Amino acid sequence: MLFKQVTQSNKIVKRGRGRLKNFFFALAIAAITAAAAAAAAAAILRTFTFEASLFLLNLFIKRLLMLTTVKALNNCTVAFAVANTAFDNFLALNAAFLRSAASSPSDLASRTNCSPMTRSASSILPFPFALALAAFIAFVALAALVAFAVIVASVVLIIVASFALVVALTAFAAALAVAMTLAERRAKVKRLLNALVDLLL
Question: Membrane-spanning regions, if any (predicted)?
């Protein structure tokens, strides 16, 4: 009978040690997860404050922001170049129209020998309307450019904010899981110790 009680107590002690090892292993994993989440959150905060950091996540986010900004600036440059070219073409056509309007109406020979650009300019709308149209096109291009840059910046900020929120929720869930696991393991260990004391006594 005594041998049976000792065997049962040894089994309970071994089971308790195994559960304690599993508990400490789970606690270590939870601590590593929480530390990684905290490091990621700190890297994201340093990204927003433009501070130097050695974290790869911070460098990745900064490079992503830089690439997005460079791409947006390149698109802005292309749009500005297109608007500038259109405006220059309008100015050239208006200058040709003014030259053709300043020439004598009876000079038909000079009109027939003029360039196709001048002949096409003679049929264009008057100068003020063309200038207003060119200014309107340039304004629309600039507004579209600014709107595109704002949209790109908003999308990048939404992505970074969503990632930061996911990291924060992961850290909170890990901390909650650690607390629940700690409470459950503590209750189980307490019950095992009470059973062992009862068997020994």
Answer: 127-151, 157-183
